């Protein structure tokens, strides 16, 4: 049956896959129900429908019905293909070596023969156990690349090992190309290697155990950090919410005050307009009285007008809100100063005492004050060479590699300096960029001068338009991958922030480009 069916004959010419819900159109060609419907939808506006294969047209659109006979044949074809694919390797798992002598159903190979250069399942292997001639053949665990275990020069099994040339050889090689070499059976050398590998594995196990212990401790620390961070975040959110609510209440009161002043001004305006209207009425009555010839009426009415006319004093309204705006601006500045001060105190909580490593200092640098100050020497002095010492760039590194959260401050003087952090494996010798702070992927550097700043990493510079300051704060959150530089004067100004992934501990470092410069590690209060 399988030989009579050709899968290509049951493929849809539109999707090129086996027919799904097959239908036959009037010309006799068959398609998937969905494919031909989608194809004909494009011609709905024309009212003429064609066969994608032969081009025959139909009008109106033919009614399509599922061809059950064709559908059954396609289902049988699918089952035959699945059965054929799975039956061949019925007893094998993916990646298993198969028997070279199984024909219909491939069985898993259990042994390979180095003489026959073939692999056998349990059934086909019996001949090697029963036949006297085959019993002499060398059997090994089932292996894929049998040819690699045969000597290419003598077609013999590689059962010896040459320690001199460190390669597997056959017995004939021992008496030929490797004569006089230090040789021994491959099994003996393999046993030695396995012992060495066992010791190496034991070291790996110890390292894994130590790393797993570190991982457990780190997870516990992270969990504790997350818990405390969540609490701090919730408390901070509550404080900021209350602060914002307080500010909002005062903003509403401020607006109400301004609105009250507006309403008072409008009320005074209405009062003044009403008084003007009344005065105009009295003026009109006086005008009529002046023209009257009735003396008695003049005398009677004039008495009333004199009594009712008042001397209305107009109070000039001069509202000015400049002082109010000044007061609000001053409040804003005080709040910003408070916030900056609080952020500074938050960073200072992670302050760490640092020292410089004299073994890394360039010969032109002089360390003092417990290795917390460094300056360029006024006179060149001899200095013993050391593998960690920078021999070209006038640089120095700190003694301690930093992880976690750290904050430190430095005060500098002179024409310009570089304040940096670097991995310990940064190059130390020569004038290449690999040893220069900020010019490789192992260091990050802030250049400081009186005119401003510039940040360097991997040879790329980012200019910073901020006025120069002689005091710089550095904040590092190693796990979060954050490095920030701050200018510190009366307030704390962010100069530059780095967001990356640090793969090693970071060491503080400094570089000097002129002979009048110095740097001091400050005591953070």
TrEMBL record:
Q: Name one GO biological process term.
A: innate immune response
Kindly name one Pfam family recorded for this protein: zf-C3HC4_4
Q: Name one GO molecular function term.
A: zinc ion binding
Q: Where is each B30.2/SPRY domain found?
A: 334-525
Query: Keywords of this protein's UniProt record, alphabetized?
Result: Coiled coil, Immunity, Innate immunity, Metal-binding, Zinc, Zinc-finger
Query: Which ranges carry the B box-type domain?
Result: 146-186
Q: Does the keyword Metal-binding apply?
A: yes
Domain RING-type positions: 12-54
Q: Which residues form a coiled coil?
A: 201-289
Q: Does the keyword Metal-binding apply?
A: yes
Annotated Gene Ontology cellular components are:
cytoplasm
UniProt cross-references to PANTHER family, sorted A to Z: B-BOX DOMAIN CONTAINING, E3 UBIQUITIN_ISG15 LIGASE TRIM25-RELATED
Please report the name of this protein according to its UniProt entry: E3 ubiquitin/ISG15 ligase TRIM25-like
Q: Which organism is it from?
A: Sinocyclocheilus grahami
Q: Which gene encodes it?
A: ftr66
